[in-house]
């Protein structure tokens, strides 16, 4: 199962990096369209923080410290840094997910971010879904802004 998770996250993070590569840093990456709350850059920072917190720090004990508010309010990465951080996040996911046993996947996830208890397997599935959701938003937003 962990191999499938690794493949899913790796594929989507590669797709996300390609989306970022297609963005002009000044006119597309940080632009907020009327009626839309977040920029592509902020959504990408959010995904990096989300995965590094819920998988890296919580499961893999990487020591990552998240600042969720800043993910949406600041531009703390350049375009090149976003792409680099996506690569680092992918490497972290491969390492952490690749080390999990079936027993660990079946254990209760140590936090209840949605207000209920769930297995680690369930939480990782939710995180993969979350990544795919925002990847779709980013793709759609990039195409709207660039056309």
**Could you say what the CATH architecture is?**
Up-down Bundle
Number of domains: 1
Overall geometric form: elongated
Estimated radius of gyration:
15 Å
Main sheet characteristics: none
Proportion of residues in extended strands:
under 5%
Structure description:
With 147 residues, this protein is an all-alpha fold. The protein has a single domain, classed as Up-down Bundle (Four Helix Bundle (Hemerythrin (Met), subunit A)), CATH 1.20.120. Helices cover 69% and strands 0% of the residues. The protein contains 7 helices and no strands. It has helices at residues 2-21, 25-29, 40-57, 68-73, 79-99, 102-106, 120-146. The longest helix has 27 residues, at 120-146. The chain is elongated. The termini are far apart. The mean pLDDT is 95.
Strand-helix topology:
Layout: H1 2-21, H2 25-29, H3 40-57, H4 68-73, H5 79-99, H6 102-106, H7 120-146
Helix pairs in contact: 1-5, 1-7, 3-5, 3-7
What characteristics describe this protein?
single chain; about 150 residues; mainly alpha; Four Helix Bundle (Hemerythrin (Met), subunit A); 7 helices
Quick overview:
With 147 residues, the chain is mainly alpha-helical.
């Amino acid at each position: 199962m962990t191999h499938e998770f690794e493949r899913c996250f790796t594929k989507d993070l590669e797709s996300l990096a390609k989306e970022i590569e297609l963005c002009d840093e000044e006119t597309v990456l940080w632009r907020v369209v009327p009626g839309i709350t977040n920029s592509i850059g902020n959504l990408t920072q959010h995904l990096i923080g989300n995965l590094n917190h819920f998988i890296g720090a919580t499961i893999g004990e990487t020591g990552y410290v998240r600042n969720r508010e800043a993910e949406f309010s600041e531009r703390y990465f350049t375009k090149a840094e976003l792409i680099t951080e996506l690569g680092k996040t992918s490497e972290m996911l491969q390492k952490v997910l690749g080390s999990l046993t079936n027993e660990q996947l079946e254990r209760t996830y140590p936090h209840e971010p949605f207000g209920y208890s769930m297995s680690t397997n369930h939480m990782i599935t939710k995180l993969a879904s979350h990544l795919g959701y925002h990847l779709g938003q980013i793709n759609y937003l990039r195409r709207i802004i660039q056309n």
